[in-house]
Amino acid sequence: MNWVNYLKLLLLAGAVSVQADPAMEQLKKLGSSDKDVRAATLQEIANSGDQRMIPVLSDYRLGSLFLYEDNVVLGLDIYTNDDLDEFVPIAELFSREPLLKPDGSAYLIPIEEIECIEPSRKERKSVLEAITLLELSAPDNEQRLEAVRKTGLGEFSPILISKLRNLSESDPKRGIRRAADESSALLQLRSGDPSEQAVAIEMLGKLRSVRSRSFLENLDNADAPAVQKALKRITAKERQISTFNILNSGISTGSVLVLMALGLAVTFGMMGIINMAHGEMMMIGAYTTYCMQQLFRHTPDDPHNMFFIIALPMAFLVSALFGGLIEWTVVRRLYKRPLESLLATYGVGLILIQTTRLIFGDNRSCNTPTWLQGGVEIAEGMSLSFNRIFIFILCAVCVGGVVALMRYTTLGLKMRAVIQNRDMAASMGINTRMTDSFTFMLGSGLAGVAGYALTTIGGITPDMGQNYIVDSFLVVVTGGVGNLAGVVCSGMGLGLLNKFLEGTLFGAVWAKIIVLMVVIAFIQYKPSGLFAAKGRLADD
């Protein structure tokens, strides 16, 4: 049997399998020479709600559908051989899988044996309208919402207006009903008569539609009281969105600062060590997460979300081990010597940065798991992304874990004793050296968790810790050395203040400078921090 007969049998088998499918017969009618038949067929397809037809209609509009052996097929391209003969490789219509010969090569149909099905230039607008109507009928809420919003920025059509009004009245999702009202008003504002425009202006002002600002400002009667009233309400909405975004970003930044400063506060309070390599512990946690992603071969196209769960304890452990190594080799000899410890750990940090750069290069990115992608929309323009929610929850869990460790365990009791009075704790039989080592490892591990969390909202670079180390020390000093409640309050406060200043008239650089000036002024007023020690500890 030659390949032509084999192909005919293959197409016949496909035709038999879909003969009960009305979509195939509808598509054949699109090849009719009668424009009324084509118009009626397009209307039937648009009203069918069949989501499979969206890419098929896009192919039809581009002239990629062909009729061969009384079957509608997808033409993938036009191939020209050395003799300038043209051929079309074809694919199954809905699966878009190429039809192959028994030997695995593609079928190449001579272009003269195949009939192209495509709309006329005037009909292409109707095809786009049919595609939009199908998208507005999508069963998935997110797809339907996206289609509704996109429709408001497209071309005016009475059919689309009717569909949007129907969604506004009957759609089960409140957000889609609101978006349908907004899109309908936007279409009327741009293409309606004066009375329809007046109704649209009132509706857009009532909805406080941020998308409509540019259209309202460009109206010929932009100075009219109704337009100005609508713009005033929209401006108020924009302020709310800006405030929400600042809070959202500030809380996530503050959560990372709290994670960084937790271990730093305990380490500095107990050992008197200014650990300038603390930021590099964060970097190690981030690169550990990246390595776990590579180990599990997680990609957006082939997700293996388990890597992110395993990466959390691994980031803590690897950073803690590096911290223990630094404490054993360098820091142990520099207790209560802040200046020497600062210089020594700064040098260690530079070594770690350059070593990491030699191994991994300058920039790496970590693909977040699929369950951290997307977010929840609270209101129009106000969305909480799942990765930022995760960072906040992770921060709260770590703070709760450290508090529980300090208050309810024997090790925590020893740590608090060493923080309060090292000599007295040693005289009571506490091994201060071992306690110091564990504390340093705990602080380094928490920094590694901060790096793990940061991979969900940013890239990974060898010097990423340098961007957070100064802010972490500011958090510790502002909150009160060794005080966990102060660390949480100052971390969140500085994160919010920094993002607020960045989001207003000041840029990122000036925001850092102003935050530093505020901290200096605060320390002059309260040198012991937000929560100063009381009683006998206040004299230390």
What does this structure look like?
This protein is about 65% helix and about 5% strand. The chain has 21 helices and 8 strands. Strands 1, 2, 3, 4, 5 and 6 form a 6-stranded antiparallel β-sheet that branches. A two-stranded antiparallel ribbon has the order 7-8. A hairpin with a 2-residue loop joins strand 7 and strand 8. The protein is elongated and about 100 Å long. It starts with a helix and ends in a 15-residue tail after the last helix.
Tell me the domain tally. 3
**What's the overall average pLDDT, rounded?**
82
* 3D shape: elongated
Instruction: Tell me the number of strands.
Output: 8
pLDDT below 50 for ≥5 consecutive residues: which ranges? 5-10, 12-20
Radius of gyration: 32 Å
Strand fraction equals 5-15%
Order of helices and strands: HHHHEEEEEEHHHHHHHHHHEEHHHHHHH
End-to-end gap: 96 Å
The major β-sheet equals: 6 strands, antiparallel
Number of contiguous helices: 21
Which structural class fits the helix and strand makeup?
A: mainly alpha
Helix content: 55-70%
Key attributes of the depicted protein:
two-stranded antiparallel sheet, mainly alpha, single chain, 6-stranded antiparallel sheet, 3 domains, elongated, 540 residues
Gist?
It is built from 21 helices and eight strands.
Helix/strand layout:
Elements: H1 3-17, H2 22-29, H3 35-48, H4 53-61, E1 65-68, E2 71-75, E3 79-80, E4 86-91, E5 108-110, E6 115-117, H5 123-136, H6 141-151, H7 158-170, H8 174-191, H9 194-207, H10 213-217, H11 225-271, H12 278-296, H13 306-329, H14 338-360, E7 375-379, E8 382-385, H15 386-408, H16 410-420, H17 422-427, H18 432-454, H19 466-479, H20 484-503, H21 508-525
Antiparallel strand pairs: 1-2, 1-6, 2-4, 3-4, 4-5, 7-8
Helix pairs in contact: 2-3, 3-5, 4-5, 5-7, 6-8, 7-8, 8-9, 9-11, 11-15, 11-16, 11-18, 11-19, 11-20, 12-13, 12-18, 13-18, 15-16, 15-18, 16-18, 19-20, 20-21
